[in-house]
C-alpha cells in the first residue's frame, strides 16, 4: 500500500519559517521571516487534511485551490503546485507575504478548528512561487495571438496590474497610466519592505513590461492627460486608482507641524529606505522618526506599518493609540505581536482629543481614556469616554493612520457624469466592474473602499474576464454581419 502523503497534522505540529530576532530586524527593512527549505515546506504542506469542504479555499477571496497545491507540494511536484497556484492568483508570492491569513484561509482551516494548529498556508504559498522564480518557471506573457483591441488602465496597483496580466495573456494591448514613478501602488510605496521586499514587486512589474504591457508613469490623469483622451485611445478603460485621501482629525492643535499623514510617512520611507531615493522631507527630518518620540493614532494595518517603520528609523519611543481594546482592533494580531516584540507600546482604549505644541511644533497628544459600552450599529462595542482620566502623551512626531477615502474623481477628471456613491467610491456592477459609462470599468478600493490587496486582485481578474467577454461578443456580431 502506498504511503499516505497527507493528513499528518496529528504527528507533525504547525511550524512557521523562523523569524529573525527582534533586535536584529529593528535595524533594517528586510523581511522578518526566513524562507522554508524544501523538506520543511513538504512537511508542513503534508499536514493538510484534504477535507471534503475546504473552508480555506471558500474563505479566500480568489478561491485559490489551496488543498490541491498543498498536496502537490507535499508530494514534491512543485512546478505543478506553482501552476495550480498561478491559475487563480496573479501574484501568489505577494499574497503569501501580506495577506492576513489569520483572518482568511488559515483562520478557517479545519484542523485549526480541531485544535491541531492551522496549516501554514501563506508560508507555503510564498515558498512555491519564490522557488518558481528561482527555477525559471515564471516567464513573460506570450499571447497565442494578438488582438486588435486595447485597454487603458488608470492605476498601477494590484487591481490594475491583475487586470493587465489577464488581458495581456489574451492578446489585448494594455497601457497603464499611473501618477507615481514606479508601478505597484501601495505594494511599492505603502507597504514597508519588512513585509514585502520591493524587488518582489519590481520583478512582477518587469515581467508585465516584458510581456508587452506599456507603462506611462508620472502621469496625473486630469493634468497630464485627460480622462476623455484616455477613453478615445482605448476600447475600454479600467479605473483602478485605489483610495489615497487620508481621513483627518479636526481638533484643537491639529495644525501644529510634526502631525503628518500615514501615507506621506510611508511613501517617503519606502522611497528613501528601500529604493535609496533622495527625499528632502526625509533628509530634513519632517517625515523621519529618527531620534523622536512617535505617537501613531489608529489600529489598522497601516498603523502597524507606521509604528514598525518608526522603530527602524531610530525613534526613541513609539506608542500606538487605539480607542478600542486589542480584541477589537482591525489590524492583524500577528502584526501587533511583531510590533510589540520590536518595542512598540500599545495604549489600548485611548483616543486623542487634541494636541499641545511648543512654538507651533507638536509637543504632545491630549489623550482621553475610553471604555467599551453597548454595541454600535456595526455590532462592535462603542467606545465611551471615561471622564477625568485625560492625560498628555509627549510626542515629537504624530502620525495619523485613520484610514483612507476616495478622491473626488468626477471633479479631478472633469467627469461630472462618472457615477459615484455617497461615500465617493465609483459605482460599478458586482463581478464585472462595469460602470454606467459605456466601456468604463472600475476595480479595487475605488469601488470597495479601503480593503485588502487580495480583493483588488480578484476585482481586476473578474473585470478582465468581463471585458474579454464583451470584446468576444462584439467580434462575433461583426463576423455574423
From TrEMBL:
The keyword Iron-sulfur applies. It is an enzyme of class 1 (oxidoreductase). Residues 151-460 form the FAD/NAD(P)-binding domain. Residues 25-136 form the Dihydroprymidine dehydrogenase domain. Its EC number is 1.4.1.13. One of its GO terms (molecular function) is metal ion binding. It comes from the Bacteria. Keywords: 4Fe-4S, Iron, Iron-sulfur, Metal-binding, Oxidoreductase. InterPro entries: DPD_II, FAD/NAD-bd_sf, FAD/NAD-binding_dom, GltD-like, Helical_ferredxn. The keyword 4Fe-4S applies. PANTHER family: GLUTAMATE SYNTHASE [NADPH] SMALL CHAIN, GLUTAMATE SYNTHASE [NADPH] SMALL CHAIN-RELATED. This is Glutamate synthase [NADPH] small chain. It comes from Phaeobacter porticola. The gene is gltD.
